[in-house]
Backbone:
């Protein structure tokens, strides 16, 4: 009976900072204790007020991602392509320096992309569920940016937003129907072809084709891949980064697969790239079961 | 790396409009743009990967981010000067204004506040109210003390200023990610590297 | 009604767990408290079955004998919120899937111990899940968070409990 074990440090903590410890999987689920104020987050957030003065308990003074907003207009929507290009070039040269072989470079770029892909799957689908126009008025934009950026200046308002969640304009409040989870390979590939490509590169991909030879194979075509345009003279396929993004999306959506990049130049499109998605057998088997 | 653009005589590019309007125009009409979140996410993947690669030795991560920024800065300055055709800055005050109102604006679409000048006017701070690098970020507890998440910016400034013959120390003194009230980036001018202007450029 | 809520990762590993109780309501009796994780895990098979069905909420031909137990609700086109997916001696189990197939599951207990089935208020339970889903997306967006790792943030915990108080244990 773990609730009978009294851990001295925990009990002290509970008295002074009730409920501010968070989930600990070695402890299992904790009750919402009756006399607790609901928002343990208040304590964590009010620490931002003190800054260096309350540095004693550093962990309670950090600002939190939960105070920000997922609204696409919560912060600036664009940076210059040049800034991204410089960063990306540096990402590649760093991958080069840290690797012994070309395949290792590609693997590193793939990993960076994968990191992004798993996030985009949740973020973009969740955002698509929100009714258009929700929270996009100028006044709420101001509110969003204030809470997300200048968290320290008005701690009072922040605390209010924490204690009474209805003050916090969560995107979930603007959802009447969640977008459906994509269940078929074609559906999720269309999501990548349209939603993801538009988000990343400002336009849909040029084509999405099913292989006529192999059942588990699809091809996403990009005639002028944005990333390789500012990488010159290299045999490293920079679009392994994009392969990683695609694979991250598909993998975390439970469509395990392997994504490769093939350069297939055409007269007008020297950089034309074909991303080949090969689903694992289990995906096809699952499809067959449902059909 | 040519320094020719650095030595445009002051007179030739007399700025009639304000630097802000000038930069807004470049940002609005002459800058190819990309989704800021792709930039944010890419940087996030770089930093988190470095933390793993260096086994959470955050001092090493800071140094590596600085180095990456330094490499960027050395290349970025050329692009910057080509796009703005701004003349050489006659004072550090002017430099600070160009960095905040123009460079930050046309690359990252933010305008940090300049302030906290040293009494000898050789050091200033940039206060980043908005920082596209750190959206969605919450530092893990073990990183909160040592990691300067956006340290790449210091390297960029260091590298870029060095290319225009300004030897500076650039470093963060506070970051809202660490629970500080502001994100403050300090620029301290050590000396102007006069000797390294290639002969015959003037 | 007290509830036991958990987020389960891709390897059936718990990412987050909490009990929602309230001073004016019954709490889970100790013997049940220990059982909650098992009850919940037993429902994961049903959840995984529903995960790939085109109309997981139509119930009738779900292929599992628990189909008829699931609650009906208006938005039958959605496949994130799955409604009531299982029951266990008067406890109801509801489920929800995120786009990355994180499993959000909850054991709902009634107020009285008379064994009568718990009535699940789909509207508020669904909004609870959607709000937690948003908190989860925020967690995931942090570059330092690793997929499938436990969410230890006290702020996350506080927010989830605040939502539970507002929507579930009122």
Residues:
């Amino acid at each position: 009976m773990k609730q009978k074990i009294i851990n001295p440090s925990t009990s002290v903590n509970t008295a002074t900072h009730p409920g501010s410890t968070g989930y600990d999987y070695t402890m299992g689920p904790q009750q919402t204790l009756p006399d607790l104020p609901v928002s343990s987050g208040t304590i964590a957030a009010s620490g931002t007020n003190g800054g260096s003065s309350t540095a004693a308990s550093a962990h309670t003074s950090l600002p939190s991602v939960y105070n920000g907003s997922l609204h696409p207009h919560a912060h600036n929507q664009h940076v210059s392509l040049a800034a991204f290009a410089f960063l990306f070039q540096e990402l590649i040269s760093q991958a080069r320096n840290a690797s012994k072989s070309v395949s290792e470079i590609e693997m590193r770029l793939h990993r960076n992309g994968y990191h992004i892909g798993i996030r985009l799957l949740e973020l973009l689908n969740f955002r698509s569920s929100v009714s258009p126009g929700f929270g996009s008025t100028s006044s709420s934009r101001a509110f969003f940016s204030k809470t997300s950026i200048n968290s320290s200046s008005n701690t009072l308002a922040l605390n209010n937003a924490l204690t009474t969640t209805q003050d916090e304009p969560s995107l979930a409040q603007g959802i009447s129907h969640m977008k459906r989870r994509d269940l078929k390979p074609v559906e999720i590939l269309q999501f990548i072809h349209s939603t993801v490509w538009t988000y990343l590169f400002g336009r849909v991909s040029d084509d999405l084709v099913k292989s006529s030879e192999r059942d588990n194979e699809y091809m996403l075509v990009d005639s002028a891949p944005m990333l390789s345009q500012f990488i010159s003279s290299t045999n490293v396929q920079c679009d392994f980064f994009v392969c990683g993004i695609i694979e991250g999306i598909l993998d975390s959506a439970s469509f395990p697969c392997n994504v490769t990049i093939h350069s297939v130049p055409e007269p007008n499109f020297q950089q034309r790239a074909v991303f080949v998605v090969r689903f694992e057998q289990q995906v096809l088997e699952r499809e067959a079961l449902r059909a | 790396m040519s320094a020719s653009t650095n030595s445009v005589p002051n007179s030739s590019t007399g700025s009639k409009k304000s630097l802000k309007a000038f930069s807004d125009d470049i940002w609005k009409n002459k800058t190819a743009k990309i989704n800021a979140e792709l930039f944010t996410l890419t940087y996030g993947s770089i930093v988190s990967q470095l933390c793993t690669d260096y086994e959470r030795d955050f001092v090493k991560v800071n140094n590596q981010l600085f180095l990456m920024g330094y490499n960027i800065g050395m290349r970025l300055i050329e692009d910057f000067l080509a796009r703005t055709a701004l003349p050489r800055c006659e004072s550090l005050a002017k430099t600070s204004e160009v960095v905040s109102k123009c460079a930050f604006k046309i690359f990252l679409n933010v305008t940090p506040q300049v302030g906290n000048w040293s009494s000898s006017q050789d050091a200033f701070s940039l206060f980043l109210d908005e920082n596209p690098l750190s959206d969605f970020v919450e530092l893990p507890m073990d990183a909160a003390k040592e990691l300067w998440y956006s340290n790449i910016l210091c390297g960029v400034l260091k590298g870029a200023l060095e290319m225009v013959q300004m030897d500076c120390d650039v470093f963060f003194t506070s970051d809202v990610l660490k629970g500080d009230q502001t994100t403050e980036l300090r620029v301290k001018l050590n000396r102007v590297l006069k000797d390294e202007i290639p002969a015959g450029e003037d | 009604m007290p509830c036991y809520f958990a987020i389960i990762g891709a390897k059936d590993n718990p990412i987050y767990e909490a009990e929602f109780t309230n001073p004016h309501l019954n709490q889970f009796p100790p013997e049940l408290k220990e059982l909650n994780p098992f009850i919940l895990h037993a429902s994961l098979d049903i959840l995984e079955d529903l995960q790939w069905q085109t109309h997981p909420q139509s119930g009738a031909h779900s292929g599992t004998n628990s189909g008829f137990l699931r609650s009906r609700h208006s938005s039958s086109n959605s496949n994130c919120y799955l409604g009531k997916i299982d029951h266990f001696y008067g406890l109801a189990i509801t489920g929800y899937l995120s786009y990355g197939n994180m499993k959000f599951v909850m054991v709902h207990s009634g107020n009285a111990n008379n064994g009568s089935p718990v009535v699940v208020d789909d509207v508020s339970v669904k909004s609870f899940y959607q709000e937690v889903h948003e908190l989860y997306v925020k967690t995931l967006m942090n570059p330092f968070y690793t997929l499938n790792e436990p969410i230890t943030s006290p702020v996350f915990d506080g927010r989830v409990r605040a939502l539970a108080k507002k929507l579930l244990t009122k």
In short: Chain A touches chain C through 59 residues (CB under 8 Å). The longest helix of chain A spans residues 102-129. Strands of chain A lie at 30-31, 78-80, 207-210, 217-222, 257-263, 273-279.
